[in-house]
Write a structure and sequence with these properties.
alpha+beta; 5-stranded antiparallel sheet; 5 strands
């Protein structure tokens, strides 16, 4: 009924006019950023905020301590604290991927992903794989390895979220490794916080005074 109403409202077309494929008149424009782009943007903002925060803390340590030693410690806090925050973020991100690797194969939808392009790095071969969700939409994901196809599981409500279906031994190893990276990053952060607290409590106020 809708198509008939629209057709009736259109001006008449001459019988000798050439038929035009309407698909050629359609233009597609992306008006919203993807989930990956949005996450990358927020990650950059968070990284800048963390570095600026440690920079402010380093300056405060130098001003409060009032000697060359506390300025040096402030510089160390800036470097070590930023590195600790980065390591912690990597560990947390790794654990989130491990959680998806455990959760999605059990509660998600498993399909076969086909290798679409090849890549390589210091850790060996890798590539981009394509899989299709239940709506017929294709998605791309990065996978380590060289197999022609891999089994992946995606979230039913968020098809762009997917994980490779590894065997349980690989997932246990990834869990232990991610937890180790996270704990190491937290330890580095704790050492930076300890240096800052010691400076503010005056433990290094006479560090440059001859004994």
């Amino acid at each position: 009924m809708f198509a008939s109403a629209v057709t009736t409202g259109l001006p008449p077309r001459p019988r000798d006019a050439d038929a035009v494929d309407g698909a050629s008149l359609v233009s597609v424009e992306v008006v919203a950023e993807s989930v990956r782009e949005r996450r990358a943007r927020w990650a950059k903002r968070l990284a800048v905020a963390v570095v600026l925060g440690f920079a402010v803390l380093a300056v405060a340590m130098g001003v409060v301590g009032g000697n060359a030693a506390t300025w040096f410690l402030g510089f160390m806090v800036l470097i070590v604290g930023s590195a600790g925050a980065a390591i912690t973020a990597v560990g947390a991100g790794g654990l989130w991927l491990v959680y998806q690797a455990w959760y999605l194969p059990r509660y998600g939808i498993t399909v076969e992903a086909v290798r679409a392009s090849d890549a390589s790095d210091l850790l060996g071969r890798s590539g981009n794989y394509m899989y299709t969700d239940t709506s017929g939409v294709s998605h791309r994901m990065y996978v380590k390895g060289s197999a022609a196809t891999v089994a992946v599981a995606f979230h039913p409500a968020k098809p762009a979220t997917a994980a490779v279906c590894h065997f349980w031994g690989r997932k246990v190893w990834d869990t232990v490794f991610g937890l180790g990276v996270l704990l190491f990053g937290l330890a580095v952060l704790a050492s930076s916080v300890a240096l800052a607290l010691g400076t503010f409590m005056g433990e290094y106020a006479d560090a440059m005074t001859p004994q």
